[in-house]
Amino acid sequence: RDIVLLWPPPAKYGGRHTVTLIPGDGIGPELLNHVRELFRFSCVPVDFEVVNVCSSTEDDINNAITAIRRNGVALKGNIETLHTLPASHKSRNNLLRTSLDLYANVMHCKSLPGVQTRHNNIDIMIIRENTEGEYSSLEHESVTGVVECLKIITRTNSLRIAEYAFKLAREKGRKRVTAVHKANIMKLGDGLFLQCCREVAAGYPDIAFDAMIVDNTTMQLVSKPQQFDVMVMPNLYGNVVSNVCAGLVGGPGLVPGANYGHDYAVFETATRNTGKSIADRNIANPTAMLLASCMMLDHLKLYDYATMIRNAVLTTMNETRVRLNSPRRCSPHTFHN
Amino acid sequence: MVVIISVAGILIKSWFRPRRGMQTVTLIPGDGIGPEISTAVMKIFEAAKAPIQWEEKNVTAIKGPGGKWIIPPEAKESMDKNKIGLKGPLKTPIAAGHPSMNLLLRKTFDLYANVRPCMSIEGYKTPYTDVDLVTIRENTEGEYSGIEHTIVDGVVQSIKLITEDASRKIAEYAFEYAKNNQRASVTAVHKANIMRMSDGLFLRKCRQVAENYRDIKFTEMYLDTVCLNMVQDPTQFDVLVMPNLYGDILSDLCAGLIGGLGVTPSGNIGANNVAIFESVHGTAPDIAGLDLANPTALLLSAVMMLRHMGMHDYSKKIETACFNTIRDKKVLTGDLGGKSKCSEFTAEICQRVRDMD
Hints:
The structure holds 2 protein chains of 2 kinds. Chain A is α/β, with parallel strands linked by helices. Chain A has helices spanning about 30-40, 60-70, 90-100, 155-170, 190-200, 215-225, 235-250, 285-300, 305-320; strands spanning about 10-15, 15-20, 45-50, 75, 105-110, 125-130, 135-145, 145-155, 175-180, 210-215, 230-235, 255-260, 265-270. Helix content of chain A is about 35%, strand content about 25%. In chain A, strands 1, 2, 3, 4, 5, 6, 9, 10, 11, 12 and 13 form an 11-stranded mixed sheet that branches. In chain A, helix 4 crosses helix 5 (about 190-200) and helix 8 packs antiparallel against helix 9 (about 305-320). Chain B has 2 domains: about 20-115 and about 260-355, 3-Layer(aba) Sandwich (Isopropylmalate Dehydrogenase), CATH 3.40.718.10; about 125-260, 3-Layer(aba) Sandwich (Isopropylmalate Dehydrogenase). Chain B contains 11 helices and 14 strands. Chain B has helices spanning about 1-15, 35-45, 75-80, 100-110, 165-180, 195-210, 225-230, 245-260, 295-310, 310-330, 340-355; strands at about 25-30, 50-55, 60-65, 70, 85, 110-120, 130-140, 140-150, 155-165, 185-190, 215-220, 240, 265-270, 275-280. In chain B, a hairpin with a 2-residue loop joins strand 8 (about 140-150) and strand 9. In chain B, helix 2 (about 35-45) packs parallel to helix 11, helix 5 crosses helix 6 and helix 7 (about 225-230) runs parallel beside helix 8. Chain B is globular and about 75 Å long. At the A-B interface, strand 7, strand 8, helix 6 and helix 7 of A face strand 8, strand 9, helix 6, helix 7 and helix 8 of B.
């Protein structure tokens, strides 16, 4: 049950942990309210320090980052990035991830028995490099009408994420790690990533390693997703593959995600949607956020509470027989202990 | 005597003059299973009496003056004259020293738009039904510009290039395509929340072009949202236009939805009205020459070509024959789940085409 690589977070006074809570925009606030209500109902020894981040000023996000540094753990909703704003206004979510060096984004896609989907028996862990790659936000317009955007791949970060992937695979008893890349076209960039993965794989002879090009990967995912076990990849491909997998197991409302760094951990929904169109209508699916809070409880070593809440969520889902694409009333569930 | 000579002259002239209404198309059979599927397509077109004359050319790269790899001049001349081409799968031998053939063709004819219509094939069951969308991908720049540097040891940068011109051209093509094919909406796929300037420029151009096509609905969607919704409900999408990398990933994703590369047509549109239609699967060297190949992808690409040339009756006839054959499941090649040979599959389609007349 040991969580890989991380020291336990320090903030624990009187047996209660303090966790930073960032409501974000859209459906974030209402989902996190459900989490708070549930924790209060279940008497979970966690206090939330709420930090609101408004999308316009720099101060808010800096406060949030300081709060997370203080507490070590955070639970967050997605902060909207208005892409009509100039390029100097960086994505707040990205800023948070890079400042805290949350280099690994982990997402576990598992077919849930109560959810009808086109594919069954999916069990894929996706590990995505979270800080560099195409999300470096380094762009410039060298000549009018010609824009260059830099994608940075470094040896250190690629080795780091590959190490993380293999250690996690070993800890969870997984048999195979697949690296997703486009090294036939981006020979130096993705070539370096692939080479680092191969180097790390050599140190784990008990785990099989193979590589697959990203367009073939998406094609295989929609026809035979059962063939994948653990997947590791750079930032943008991680975005695509994690959204495809989330869609395969039932949608963005069902899958939790976690961002891990050496010192901090931030938990959120896997697909990071703001969900503006369904906000404040009591129809958003809280499952993803609730399962993310369970992942957070596991991280805080409060395993009993995590198991209790997780079982309650999954039982509720199976009993009420959720159907995809039908709005689900998000009112408080009755939970059985 | 004069009458005989003049009649003979007319006969000789008409022998060498192309028959009225016939269009010449450059055919590049390709490698591996390429020749057999090209023959299959030619047979089917003959059975349908389509007014197409084929001019077969080989495009193996040769070293031109100045040491640069080029395609043979006869092939280039033929394409420039005919403007329309049909291409089978090409292989790139690893130690040949020349770049990918597909890349070379793309550069030679400035093929800036890659179009892939994805329509569910009745009779070839996949978990997704009623898929009917078109992906239009910018083919020349973006993430595939090939500009990479090692800044210091262990740090690599790849440059993604987005230009105003290319974005405008692809947006214009997408809206024209939508208009000519009676499609209701065009969706631009982007990641402008992260890549503000580059995808922002692409989006701005799409918006500007959308102003000129008021009757076609224009929407914008993030790449991750498109992926998420595509695997849950692909029927909500119509025409998708996007830069190079997203297009690569999404077009293969959509091909996977309808059954893979063996049944997906594809077309590349270039400057100066040049268009090359191709099958996107590999050369399948293990089944080459064994009469086991499935010509569907190349056939559907040829149907796309007919539509592009305005020959809608012939395209409908051949497409219907092909889909009916697959739907009836009596004569199917190995990859579609049957046991027939390529020639039998082809003969069946030819028979249906003839029966339709």
